[in-house]
Amino acid sequence: MEITDDGFLTPVGFFGLNQKIVQGWGNIPLSVDLPFTAAVKRDEMILVEPSGLLDQYPALEKFDGIPNSWVSHLICPVLPFGAFSLTLDSVPKIDSEFELFIRTAGALATIHFTKINYRVEQFNHKRASNGAKKLGELSTRQLLIKSLIEKGFSNPAIAEEIGYSESLVRQETMAIYSILNVSGRKELLEAKDK
Q1: Mean per-residue pLDDT of the chain
Q2: 192, 180 Cβ separation under 8 angstroms
């Protein structure tokens, strides 16, 4: 699942699930309470098991095609890109070493797929604003974060305001500085005042 510039998760690749079913999920607003959105917003791995899943995430009832023979499902954020999931036939012991391995594997896969512009299927309902942008141009999300920085918001306050994790806001802030060729918040604010 990829985070779009306008605050949605959209499927970009899938393995082991029916393509038409996944396409039917469409763009998922980050405001909807699902394991994927929770992993992204909190920047933490989410492990779910079938028992009590619909009680914890009732919005899942609207999603067809979720496998029914699984023991656990692990969702791992790969920020700022999005998240990936693994459907498992056991419940893994999640310790710091396991989490580091899963996050590293996800980051490496993301780098690889991003570099080769890999998509199992391009979704027609993916918003136009998510297409390629000009070099040096801020995304919609980066423009929003930049405007909040200019209003004096701290990274934790920005994260709370827009519903993203503080880690994602920090990464996007660094990207903004790089794109605008400024050394940090102070230089960004000074450039605004000129």
Answers
A1: 78
A2: no
Query: pTM (2 decimals)?
Result: 0.56
Could you tell me where the DSSP H helices lie in 61-154?
96-115, 140-150
H or E stretch covering 48: strand 46-48
174-188: pLDDT as tens digits: 888 888 888 888 888
Torsion, CA 13, CA 15, CA 20, CA 24, rounded to 10: -60
Q: Report the length, in residues, of the chain.
A: 194
Nearest Cα neighbor of 2 from 36, 45, 42, 38 is 36
User: Could you identify the residue written with the tokens 């899963």?
Assistant: 102
Determine the Cα–Cα distance for residues 84 and 110; give it in Å rounded to an integer. 9
- Tell me the C-alpha distance between 175 and 48, whole Å: 32
Place of tokens 């985070």: 3
